Amino acid sequence: MFQSLNGFIFPGGSAQLPASAEYIFRRVLRSNTLGDFIPLWGLCLGFEWLLKITTQNNDILESNYVMNLSMPLVFTDQVANSSLFANASDFILDSFSNFNVTMNNHFYGISANGFQRNKILKSFYRVLSTNIDRDGVQFVSTIESFRFPIVGTQWHPEKNLFE
Prior knowledge:
- The protein is of the alpha/beta class and 163 residues long.
- It has a single domain (2-153), classed as Class I glutamine amidotransferase (GATase) domain (Rossmann fold, 3-Layer(aba) Sandwich).
- Helices cover 29% and strands 29% of the residues.
- The strands form 2 sheets. A 6-stranded mixed beta sheet has the order 1-2-8-7-6-4. A two-stranded antiparallel ribbon has the order 3-5.
- A hairpin with a 5-residue loop joins strand 6 and strand 7.
- It is globular, with a radius of gyration of 15 Å.
- The N and C termini lie far apart (34 Å).
């Protein structure tokens, strides 16, 4: 079925990392390396799966208390280089950075410090945004692969209309 699809989403929710997610990740890498554009988006739990699969470390996640919390994104200087936000209008960037439009519902993630200490993550992803959790810890909220069309959002882009 992989060949009949043109992209993948690792959704949010509550589930263990399935072997099929790692298979899809590896196939996405291979397909893009061979010139077949296949994007992958991990959101919330899917973001966490991207971290685990990329590092091959199921213990990479840290406690991150951000349940039922909408907040603006704190963009990094990497936004201008990103595929996800580079062509966004000033209105969109302003909305994301000044209004509570990103819905967060998670207990785990990765701190900005934890990300920076991990050589694998730093070499594979650029950090596009961060946020501060309820305990005052800065966490990574949006990532994008340097080389592949792989994006991760710790927040739920599909929920802002409903929360």
